[in-house]
Amino acid sequence: MQEIHRSSFTSRLLLASLAGLGSFVAIVFWPAGTIGWTAGWLHVALVTTGMWTSFIYLRRANPAVIEHRLRTHRGTKYWDWIWFALFTPAFLAIYTVAGLDAVRFEWSTMSLWLWPLGLVLWLSGYALLTWAMGVNPFFEKTVRIQAERGHRVIDTGPYRFVRHPGYLGFFGWILSAPLFLGSWWAFLPALLSIACVVIRTALEDRTLHRELGGYQEYASRVRYRLIPGVW
Asked: Could you give the C-alpha distances from 63 to 53, 68, 75, 133, 134, in angstroms and in order?
């Protein structure tokens, strides 16, 4: 039975990965109107490599989080579904605007010297996000109290410094995309996406204060939600 479960999980993961990669390629290149976009392919390659590197790490450090993130679960807060409906188009607009700007219409130009800055933001942000998932078995896609799994406060790893390190790491992906793709205009949906993440952080933090035992004491020790010394 365990072998069957492992085979089913591997199949679902492979299908999800292929579907996600295909969708991401379409999202990046359709607005550009061409597949001959070097910056676009470099970004796709970097994201794909990062995801598989993260997967290899999580298979050793916290395999349960991979399976739980493949699907949604009962108990997700209603406001989180609304949030997803607002955040998703804002995030996808980064790539729509970047393709239209950098390739199709060339509304703005960006120096190639900013590419290394994008790489630093991506690597540091994705490393932080992966680290957060590695130490937190309750790092699911949606916000809910996972009572059936013995949901508890996690205060190790990056959670020693901020209460929501995964979101801070995700900022690296969001802000690096316009730099990788060479579009100043793409910063508009990128900043909107970050505002959405900040709102979700506040709503999730409020939920955890109210419903997760021990969280108020943890919040009194780790004062900042996202950025030490700021908020």
From this structure: 13, 9, 22, 10, 8
Largest CA distance in the chain: 57
For residue 110, give its domain range: 2-221
What b/e readout covers 24-52, taking b as 16+ CB neighbours within 10 angstroms? beebbbebbeeeebebbeebbebbeebbe
Selection from 130, 124, 206 nearest residue 171 by Cα: 124
More confident call, 31 vs 16 = 31
Kindly state the tokens that stand for 223: 């004062």
Residue 216 Cα distances to 163, 199, 210, 221, angstroms:
11, 19, 8, 9
Q: What pLDDT, in 10s, does the model give residues 88-130? A: 999 999 999 999 999 999 999 999 899 999 999 999 999 999 9
CATH of the domain at 41: 1.20.120.1630
3-state secondary structure 85-140: HHHHHHHHHHHHHHHHHHHHHCCCCCCHHHHHHHHHHHHHHHHHHHHHHHHCCCCC
Provide the whole-model pTM: 0.91
Strand stretches in the chain, DSSP E: none
- Judged by phi (left if over 0) then psi (alpha if -120 to 50, else beta), residue 62 lies in beta
Residue 128 included in any domain: yes
Contact 169, 129 (CB under 8 A): yes
Domain presence at residue 18? yes
Summarised one tens digit per residue, pLDDT across range 24-62 is 999 999 999 999 999 999 999 999 999 899 989 999 999
Asked whether the predicted pLDDT for residue 1 surpasses 50, the reply is no
Read off the amino acid at residue 154: I
